[in-house]
Design brief:
Blueprint (H helix, E strand, L loop, with lengths): L17 H6 L6 E5 L1 E4 L17 E6 L17 E4 L15 E4 L6 E8 L2 E2 L15 E4 L9 E8 L2 E4 L3 E4 L9 E3 L2 E3 L2 E5 L3 E4 L8 E3 L2 E3 L2 E2 L6 E4 L9 E3 L2 E3 L2 E2 L5 E4 L14 E3 L2 E3 L2 E2 L6 E4 L5 E3 L2 E2 L15
Parallel strand pairs: 1-3, 2-4, 3-6, 4-6, 5-8, 6-9, 7-10, 8-11, 9-12, 9-13, 10-14, 11-15, 12-16, 13-17, 14-18, 15-19, 16-20, 17-21, 19-23, 20-24, 21-25, 22-26, 23-27, 24-28, 25-29
């Protein structure tokens, strides 16, 4: 409306200019986004996505009258939608990612959005980044840093080979350690592993801090319906999970979480030891082994003050913390 320069609600940017608004911002700026659906592109180019910027906070779910951030309310849930739904109806030709980040730290903030419809299916083995993180790819591979702050967001209906909701790519000396708070992961899918989140810290580090999260009804064909943590190759994939629930997620092995220390070639190394406190793992299912969690190569599952259904958890798939 108005001058369409983003200086106020009366002069708001057009709805198709969200990424331009983010990219043109400088450190300390805030981008306020009104209720509505914002698409990655108006074209059929699947390689276009949203990206975050260091020092810039992107806040969604405003009704368009607020003058203070504290006036924003979530009474109706998150009402600003970032969608990869392009081309024909249905997910087949959607953008590979809703959001793809690189070279950002925790001063890059996303708060108050639904992230949906990403379809990272470029190759069946996950060798290309366009097969990783349908909802969000945090790409720090080969020595980079990609650790944004994600708050008050819902990830849903995203699919990929690995990391349907989020893929944290810390391989080969990278650090992909986002801060995820007050978020919901529901009905995301991975054809390989990590329906909700995949923390790939192989020969690097992918260890997010996840607080007040819900993982519900996420699925993976192979392993880790909700979350995969791979720290092989002398890497580290050891997320801290606080005050969260993992309910009704499913996979062949590891309906809830998989922690993995295996190397590509042979043997085991590195650290894959998710630390869980004040959390619930219940109703997750596995067609094979480890309905709540599945441990590979001496990985750990350190749980404290948590409610975990261990009725079908056979060694070595056992809690390593005090319980």
């Amino acid at each position: 409306a108005g001058l369409m320069n983003g200086t106020s609600w009366a002069n708001a940017f057009p709805g198709g200019s969200l990424q331009s608004a983010i990219t043109s911002s400088i450190a300390g700026d805030e981008v306020w986004v009104m209720t509505g659906t914002y698409f990655t592109t108006a074209t059929n180019n699947r390689n276009i996505y949203f990206s975050m910027v260091n020092g810039v906070s992107v806040y969604g779910s405003f009704n368009g009258t607020e003058t203070l951030l504290t006036q924003r309310v979530f009474t109706c849930g998150f009402t600003s939608v970032l969608s990869a739904e392009i081309g024909l109806p249905g997910i087949a030709d959607n953008s590979y990612h809703v959001i793809s980040n690189s070279s950002v730290n925790n001063t890059a903030i996303l708060d108050g959005f639904i992230i949906r419809d990403g379809h990272a299916n470029f190759d069946l083995l996950g060798n290309d980044s366009r097969s990783l993180g349908g909802g969000m790819l945090n790409n720090a591979a080969n020595g980079g840093v990609c650790s944004p702050t994600i708050r008050n967001c819902l990830f849903t209906n995203n699919t990929s080979v690995f990391g349907g909701g989020i893929f944290n790519h810390g391989q080969n000396g990278g650090n992909a350690n986002p801060i995820v708070t007050n978020c919901i992961f529901i009905q995301n899918t991975a054809t390989g592993g990590g329906g909700g989140i995949d923390n790939f810290g192989y020969n690097g580090n992918a260890s997010p801090v996840i607080t007040n999260a819900v993982f519900y009804n996420n699925t993976a064909t192979d392993r880790a319906g909700a979350m995969y943590c791979w720290g092989g190759g002398n890497g580290n994939a050891s997320p801290t999970i606080l005050n969260s629930v993992f309910i009704n997620n499913s996979s062949f092995d590891g309906g809830g979480i998989v922690a993995d220390r295996s190397n590509f070639a042979a043997g085991n190394s590195g650290t894959a030891n998710p630390t869980i406190r004040n959390s619930i793992f219940w109703g997750n299912t596995a067609g094979g082994t480890g309905p709540q969690f599945f441990l590979i190569g001496g990985a750990g599952f350190a749980a404290t003050y948590s409610a975990i259904d261990i009725s079908n958890q056979n060694p070595p798939h056992a809690i390593t913390g005090p319980g």
